[in-house]
UniProtKB/TrEMBL annotation:
<dbReference type="GO" id="GO:0005737">
    <property type="term" value="C:cytoplasm"/>
</dbReference>
<dbReference type="Pfam" id="PF20258">
    <property type="entry name" value="tRNA_Me_trans_C"/>
</dbReference>
<dbReference type="InterPro" id="IPR004506">
    <property type="entry name" value="MnmA-like"/>
</dbReference>
<keyword id="KW-0694">RNA-binding</keyword>
<dbReference type="GO" id="GO:0005524">
    <property type="term" value="F:ATP binding"/>
</dbReference>
<comment type="function">
    <text>Catalyzes the 2-thiolation of uridine at the wobble position (U34) of tRNA, leading to the formation of s(2)U34.</text>
</comment>
<dbReference type="GO" id="GO:0103016">
    <property type="term" value="F:tRNA-uridine 2-sulfurtransferase activity"/>
</dbReference>
<feature type="binding site">
    <location>
        <position position="32"/>
    </location>
    <ligand>
        <name>ATP</name>
    </ligand>
</feature>
<feature type="binding site">
    <location>
        <position position="125"/>
    </location>
    <ligand>
        <name>ATP</name>
    </ligand>
</feature>
<feature type="binding site">
    <location>
        <begin position="6"/>
        <end position="13"/>
    </location>
    <ligand>
        <name>ATP</name>
    </ligand>
</feature>
<dbReference type="InterPro" id="IPR023382">
    <property type="entry name" value="MnmA-like_central_sf"/>
</dbReference>
<dbReference type="Pfam" id="PF20259">
    <property type="entry name" value="tRNA_Me_trans_M"/>
</dbReference>
<feature type="domain" description="tRNA-specific 2-thiouridylase MnmA-like C-terminal">
    <location>
        <begin position="279"/>
        <end position="353"/>
    </location>
</feature>
<protein>
    <recommendedName>
        <fullName>tRNA-specific 2-thiouridylase MnmA</fullName>
        <ecNumber>2.8.1.13</ecNumber>
    </recommendedName>
</protein>
<keyword id="KW-1015">Disulfide bond</keyword>
<feature type="site" description="Interaction with tRNA">
    <location>
        <position position="337"/>
    </location>
</feature>
<keyword id="KW-0808">Transferase</keyword>
Length: 366
């Protein structure tokens, strides 16, 4: 089998490529250049698109004795990931750029080009498993990345390979060291790769400017001001700078972000609880589920899955809608995030959260 190994310059993708070689496949390594002006070096564990990362990927490929290429996908990354990220925040939603990158770049642009060049599959260092034609969680719950792969289609799953799905991170690092790979002890990348300094607010300010507005309590009382709704996400507690303390003295959290009026609504933690999630643009890793079904849902990359009743409903205006009723309330669920559905360990599909319904509040006892 001809395998295209996506090599980020980190330890996971290097070991994944090595295992593909060991399996006897014809492997070619490819590093994705996603930034027009990449930094020379990473800032610790921040980012993953520096020149240093490209050099590390090349050294790993040389060690494995496989061909290596760099593909410039910076224009498509800017349009499909970075511009989408900015537009979503401008609209009051909270996007997940890693999930969007998997959807639009790693398993769309790369796979499309790979198949056109005669490759059979794309191999990555994601912690997930492919069992037959099904996508499943990784064995290591602490490293499981199936959530950010929930956007894959059945076609993409069928042409993907995740060699690390049955291993732990400790095992992968030990294997890299034993193979003599220089990235064995390299820190994992985290945060948003195109904001290597971690200043998301500053990044958005530079693109959206200052848009002053009011912060109001649930009863509409003004309790503060802000410089832009893009500084806030549902569930946020820190950085609110409220001028009027809550009557009960407890912390307040962002409950709603409305860019049209420039209003950010805050309230008590219990007001964040929701039991119904409506998602748009659902994608399925296999066949579309029929009728309401019982499963598990997850709304954050490392969040705990919760039991739920899940249903796909047809909508003439916007296509299918995914409706999820959870058995227990979830907190801080923000529009723009993904809800990923599971049947046990199997990833069924995902949708982009459009709206939520608050959990019933307990009646006050007179």
């Amino acid at each position: 089998m001809r395998v295209l190994a996506a090599m980020s310059g980190g330890v996971d993708s290097a070991v994944a490529a090595a295992r593909a070689v060991d399996a006897g496949h014809d492997v070619t390594g490819v590093h994705l250049a996603l930034s027009k002006n990449p930094q020379s070096f990473r800032s610790g564990a921040r980012g993953c698109c520096s020149r240093e990362d490209a050099h590390d990927a090349r050294r790993a490929a040389d060690r494995l004795g496989i061909p290596f290429y760099v593909w410039d996908l910076s224009d498509r990354f800017a349009a499909d990931v970075v511009d989408d990220f900015v537009a979503e925040y401008a609209a009051g939603r909270t996007p997940n750029p890693c999930l969007r990158c998997n959807e639009k770049i790693k398993f769309s642009a790369v796979l499309e080009r790979g198949l056109a060049l005669g490759f059979d599959a794309v191999c990555t260092g994601h912690y997930a498993r492919r069992v037959g034609d099904e996508l499943h969680r990784a064995v290591d719950d602490a490293k499981d990345q199936s959530y950010v792969l929930g956007v894959l289609t059945a076609h993409q799953v069928a042409h993907s390979w995740f060699p690390l799905g049955g291993s732990t991170k400790t095992e992968v690092r030990a294997e890299a060291a034993a193979r003599g790979l220089s990235v064995a002890a390299k820190p994992d990348s985290h945060d948003i790769c195109f904001i290597p300094d971690g200043d998301t607010a500053g990044f958005l300010d530079a693109r959206l400017g200052t848009r002053p507005g009011s912060i109001v309590d649930v009863d509409g009382t003004a309790v503060g001001e802000h410089d832009g709704t893009h500084h806030f996400t549902v569930g946020q507690r820190r950085g609110l700078r409220l001028g009027v303390p809550a009557a009960d003295g407890k912390p307040r959290f962002v409950l709603d972000v409305t860019p049209v009026t420039g209003t950010v609504t805050v309230g008590p933690r219990e007001a964040l609880a929701v039991t119904r999630i409506a998602g748009v643009r659902p994608t399925w890793t296999g066949t579309t589920p029929a009728g309401p079904w019982r499963g598990l849902v997850q709304v954050r990359a490392h969040g705990a899955p919760v039991p739920a009743t899940i249903e796909v409903r047809a909508s003439a205006a916007d296509g299918d809608e995914l409706v999820v009723d959870t058995d227990e309330p979830l907190s801080g669920v923000a529009p723009g995030q993904a809800v990923v559905c599971y049947d046990g360990t199997r990833v069924v599909g995902s949708a982009t959260i459009a709206s939520t319904v608050a959990a019933p509040r307990p009646a006050l006892v007179p």
